[in-house]
Specification:
heterodimer, A: mainly alpha, B: alpha+beta, seven-stranded antiparallel beta sheet, 13 helices, 54% helix, elongated
Chain lengths: 78, 384
């Protein structure tokens, strides 16, 4: 069953979100997603502004969400 | 689950509505922008492979003829035209000079022709029509929708819609992420849940990139407007003064283009090189002055420009105007939008993010359509 947003209201059955111990961790996920996005933005701008060996550091920041996403995807599959 | 979570509040419902409709309205144009944008990321490589920009056949150290000779040869080849500007780009187009021409009475760059000359021989080597080249065609579609400045504003509107969709998407994502682990894809529970998980997961991954590309796309949409404002304000004062002075022959200014380059370079701040010389009597210059555009030699300065005004009669430099902050912001938006400043790794990352965004745009529209189809399939009176 899904609500008007298409969000699954039965997802407690599908995932472990019902467990209290994990509720706190889940509430942190949004913050982590936003921090990752901000770091990526900082990386994109940093690469443009700074012309030095730091380029690779900024590139790593830019690619961070993709890397974390890829890692989470593989972890969930296995 | 609490009652509050089961019955979404007004704040959530408003953002859900906003996310749905801004995304749906922008879907088709955004798809076009993603596809053309992916190709334009590699515009330099494509132009080189297709030979769209003429190149010099001479070694870099071969002595070059004066730029004024190139100009004379272009005008001899096209006697009914005048020069609007000249451009040098030793890094990307070494050994050739770009000469932009238009009809004798032209003031505007609208419909201008591009003529390239070899700096060693000063002879014309090609005149590609930017609207007819592959990347030129795609850029006109991507940036202007073939509608000129109005098309740029339409692009800004699309960017605004996508920005609103991203921001409202974060609000809609918040309750979802409390229930579904980041990266979890519910397989085997129906295509809708799998597509929803993919939509949210990929959306979270590309969020930062998408925000940058959207905000810069919005700013780039105001490119023509910003230049128009600058022309009317700061440059307008200079033009008023110039109108009280004796004009020069714009086809053959007393100070030739080589001298104008040298004078502008002398007046340029350290680390800046004259790249473009706009001739007198155009929309970007006065009837009396050249407008020299300078680019920085390293770092972020390579993406900015400065201006030096050169009197085409006396060779004096009456003013070195400051480029306003809004023009600088738009100049910096270009590389941040196209991701062409960090070599191949950044271009590949840009491509990956564009394709992921393309995917969630399509699957978001599918999620809306699927839900609508299922609602219509439910007989009247039966609760959904």
């Amino acid at each position: 069953m899904t609500n008007s947003s298409g969000t699954n209201l039965d997802s407690r059955k599908a995932g472990p979100a019902g467990a209290n111990s994990k509720d706190g961790a889940r509430s942190q996920v949004l913050k982590r997603v936003l921090v990752m996005a901000l770091l990526s933005v900082a990386g994109i701008i940093g690469m443009l502004l700074v012309d030095s060996a730091l380029d690779w550091v900024f590139f790593a920041l830019t690619a961070l969400p993709l890397v974390v996403g890829g890692w989470r995807y593989l972890a969930e599959r296995s | 689950m609490s009652n509050q979570a089961n019955a979404p509040g007004r704040w959530f419902r408003f953002h859900l509505w906003l996310h749905r409709w801004t995304s749906l309205i922008a879907t088709i144009p955004f798809l076009v922008l993603c596809i053309t944008g992916t190709i334009l990321i590699f515009h330099e490589e494509i132009e080189e492979a297709l030979g769209e920009v003429p190149v010099s056949q001479h070694a870099a150290e071969t002595p070059q003829r004066p730029a004024s000779e190139s100009i004379a040869n272009v005008l001899a080849a096209y006697p009914d035209e005048r020069v609007l500007s000249t451009g040098l780009d030793p890094e990307h187009h070494p050994g050739v000079m770009l000469v932009v021409t238009g009809p004798k009475e032209a003031r505007s760059f609208e419909g201008a022709k591009l003529r390239f000359t070899d700096l060693v021989t000063a002879q014309p080597v090609g005149d590609p029509d930017p609207g007819m080249t592959f990347t030129g065609f795609l850029l006109e579609l991507h940036a202007e929708w073939f509608l000129g400045p109005i098309g740029e504003l339409i692009g800004a509107l699309i960017a605004l819609l996508v920005f609103l969709s991203l921001v409202s998407g974060i609000v809609v994502y918040a309750p979802y992420v409390r229930r579904i682990a980041f990266g979890m894809l519910r397989r085997g529970k129906g295509s809708r849940l799998l597509q929803l998980d993919l939509h949210n997961f990929i959306g979270a991954v590309v969020l930062g990139w998408a925000l940058v590309v959207t905000v810069t796309g919005f700013l780039l949409g105001f490119n023509s407007v910003a230049i128009g404002v600058w022309q009317m304000t700061e440059l307008g004062h200079l033009r008023e003064e110039a109108n009280r002075m004796e004009p020069v022959d714009a086809r053959h200014p007393p100070v030739d283009v080589d001298r104008a380059y040298a004078i502008a370079q002398e007046a340029a701040p350290a680390g800046w090189t004259v790249s473009t010389m706009v001739y007198p009597l155009t929309e970007f210059s006065t009837p009396r002055h050249y407008t020299a555009l300078l680019v920085g030699n390293q770092g972020v300065d390579e993406r900015l420009f400065r201006v030096v005004i050169v009197d085409a009669k006396t060779g004096e430099v009456p003013i070195v105007p400051e480029v306003p902050a809004y023009i600088k912001a738009i100049s910096l938006s270009q590389p941040l939008h196209f991701g062409d400043y960090g070599g191949l790794p950044l271009k590949l990352l840009w491509t990956a993010c564009t394709w992921l965004t393309l995917f969630i745009t399509v699957n978001g529209a599918w999620l809306w359509w699927d839900r609508r189809r299922k609602r219509q399939a439910v007989p009247a009176g039966v609760p959904a």
